[in-house]
Amino acid sequence: MASRSTAKKEALKTLLVLERFLPYRLNVLASLTSNALAQIYAERFGLSIPAWRVIATLGQYDVRTARDIATHGVMHKSTVSRAVSSLEQRGLIVRRPNEDDRREELLALTPEGSAIYESLAPQALAFEEHLVSVLKPQEQELLVSLIDKLSRHARSLTREGEGEA
Amino acid sequence: MASRSTAKKEALKTLLVLERFLPYRLNVLASLTSNALAQIYAERFGLSIPAWRVIATLGQYDVRTARDIATHGVMHKSTVSRAVSSLEQRGLIVRRPNEDDRREELLALTPEGSAIYESLAPQALAFEEHLVSVLKPQEQELLVSLIDKLSRHARSLTREGEGEA
DNA sequence: ACTTATTGGTTGCATGAGCAACGGTTTCTG
DNA sequence: CAGAAACCGTTGCTCATGCAACCAATAAGT
After folding, report:
1. Which of these, A29, A50, A85, B42, is most buried using a 10 Å CB contact count?
2. Which InterPro entries does the UniProt entry name for this protein (chains A, B) (predicted)?
């Protein structure tokens, strides 16, 4: 399992160790947590990640437009659009045209949607707590502050602050 | 922009603040860094994330099977399979059947693949360095150790250690 | 040795997401 | 006030990806 240091030709030297590469580590960790979390909202409620983010945002803010949700959840507007359609079909949210600006639609959770939110949010928080329970409270704070600092910086490296899921 | 605390019915209370939710934060940060990094290997070399991981792994280990790469890069085997096909077509890697076990194929970079690796890896490292330059060296170490601790723990919460990109 | 289970890798299928173009509205500008 | 520009949201297209079924090869069990 070790490295064959001398191949036929000059062995190319190891420039980068993937497991130590920060973007890789971040992706792995994000994937792990996303997947674990998805087991909650996908298996139990049939929600996709975007759908879950829509619900979480509406649970947090009561009423928002699709665009607000996209910005807030760092999702593409088409992603949000489809998630919203699907949630509406399932009767979890309602859309109401904004009479002041008829381009946009105000979205809100239905009672059924709220019920899901109220059931899901505590489970999500419990998961989070369980996840970070390996860290000391002090470490938890530190982690969050480091992540935020990095995120702010990373945002400035990309052209914009848009993105995907 | 604040919360309308008293809606028609009982306003549902905010249970979860998305921006403070760790899995969300991790996803945002991972997306930001992935996208920024992808600008390097996608725009300049036309590589996808899986392709880049294959190259990085082969650059690191010289010779591996597809399965090794999948495990190592936390990718699905079908993802790796397709990435490998595409890289082979482009002449960046070669496959050689393992005579000892003819189910598997040994993969290695071609000179062209190595050239890309040798050009790309330093750029990736430079990007990483630039990214973490907002953190003090001490903070960088801390971040990595926290991430690793969390990753190990998260892995134990999922059924397996497989995943996606 | 023969059957059965396991493993490495590929591929068809369905889903999901980004992109870009579009329709309908509002705002900005002259 | 008319035309251009910006903006919200939708949709067709394409591509990436996870899943599951599958083929070929090896290992395990009897």
Report:
1. A29
2. HTH_MarR-typ, Metal_resp_HTH_trans_reg, Tscrpt_reg_MarR-type_CS, WH-like_DNA-bd_sf, WH_DNA-bd_sf
